Amino acid sequence: MTGQVTAHLTWSPALGRPDLLAPATTAALHAWAAGDPRVAEQVMVAEIDPALADTAALSAAYALPLDVSANCVVVAGRRGGEERVAACVVLATTRADVNNAVRRLLDVRKATFLATDRAVEESAMEYGGITPIGLPAPWRVLVDSRVPLAGDVIVGSGVRHSKIELPGELLAEMPGVEVVDALALG
C-alpha cells in the first residue's frame, strides 16, 4: 500500500535514493533495515520542490490530504542542569502539546521548541525536512498514538527536496520510538 497515498508524486524505495535523504537518515534506514526487512520494501521517498517542503504548501501543491502528513518538531527542557531533548511526531492536523504532555514526558518544568539553528545543526538535517529517522541518539523520539492509526504517513527526509512515506505502524516500531497517547492537541 505504501506509495498509494499520493499519486501526484513519484515514489521509490528510500534505500535506493540516498541522494534524496540526509546522510543521517540514510544511515539510520540502513541500520533499521538490517533488523527489519520491511524497511527496504515499505519506506519510500519522493522528490519535491524544496520551496514546497512546509506541510500546508506541500499538501496544496501535490493534493496530499493533511491527515496523512506528520510533522516532526524538536522540543527541549532542563531539569537539574541537564538538558532533555525530544523529537515529537504528530499529524499535521494536530499540534504537539508542548506545555503539558511533552513537558511531563521530559520531566522538566518548562519545555520549548529547540531553536531552529540548533535543531538543524544538531540533527544534521535541513530546516523543514527534519525527520524522526536518523536523529541524534540521546534525543527521545515521541510519536503521537494517532500517527500509526493514519495508515501510510508522510514525514520529512532530512532534506527539503524530498519526503518519506511509510506505514505509520512501521514508524511506531522504529528502534527508539515511544508511542504516546495524547501527545498532540486537536
TrEMBL record:
Superkingdom: Bacteria
GO-annotated molecular function: aminoacyl-tRNA deacylase activity; aminoacyl-tRNA ligase activity
Domain YbaK/aminoacyl-tRNA synthetase-associated: start-end pairs: 50-171
Organism of origin: Actinotalea ferrariae CF5-4
InterPro entries: YbaK/aa-tRNA-synt-asso_dom_sf, YbaK/aa-tRNA-synth-assoc-dom
Keywords: Aminoacyl-tRNA synthetase, Ligase
UniProt key word Ligase: yes
Pfam families in the cross-refs: tRNA_edit
Lineage, opening ranks: Bacteria, Bacillati, Actinomycetota, Actinomycetes, Micrococcales
Protein name per its UniProtKB record: Prolyl-tRNA synthetase
